[in-house]
Structure formats: C-alpha cells, structure tokens
Specification:
- The chain is mainly α.
- It has one domain: Fumarate reductase/succinate dehydrogenase, transmembrane subunit (3 helical TM bundles of succinate and fumarate reductases).
- Helix 3 packs antiparallel against helix 4.
- The longest helix has about 30 residues.
- The chain is flat.
Amino acid sequence: MADVNRGNRPLSPHLQIYRPQLTSATSIFTRITGNAMLLAALMIVWWFVAAAFGPDSFATADWFITSYLGDLIMLLSVWALWYHALAGIRHLAFDTGHFLEVEQAEKFGYVMIGGAFVLTLITIIFV
C-alpha cells in the first residue's frame, strides 16, 4: 500500500540542524584513520613481496616508498596510528564510565588530537 502522506512527514534532523561536535568528529575520524592505515600496510606488504620477487621489483617498490609521496603517506600513517591508539584508550575510558561529561569528553578529544601530533614528532625524532 502506498504511503499517501510520505511527502508531508517531517524528515529526520540532519546536518543543517545539529551543530558538529568535537566528540562526534573525533569518533568519525577514528574510523577514517583506521581505514586509511590500510594504505600504508599495503605499501609495506608490497615492499616485502617485491623483495621476494627480485632486485628489479624491489627497486621499484623501494623507489616509491622512499619518494616524497611515499614518505608523506608513511608520515601520515604514523600520525593515524597514534591517533587511532589514543582513540582506543579514550573508548576504554568511556567504557569504564570515565570522562562522560561533555566538557571532559571534549578535553579528552583535544588531548587525543594534540597527543597524536606530539607522539608523531617523538617517533620521527627517535626512529
């Protein structure tokens, strides 16, 4: 049976009604960084497989990974790894009932973002 009132019903609230929040943005970005780290993982696998196939294959893979684009992808993946790890710690804290107040959750989000940058710099300096 066709719904004759379909066009008259209100739509679900969407982006034009809700104000973007830091907590939702960091949660969404956690999912994005988790998927984006696959690119670096595939590059590393390609590098190992190319090493098994011989010097010519390895030279091609090594050239790409050590190029500016490869270095940028690896740098961003290090940041994504730290961000994703800190997001996991945040979710563990949320699961135990800590930092659930809006102000605390937002502060934790800022700490998570800043912490990922600091840990990335430390990783670059010492590795």
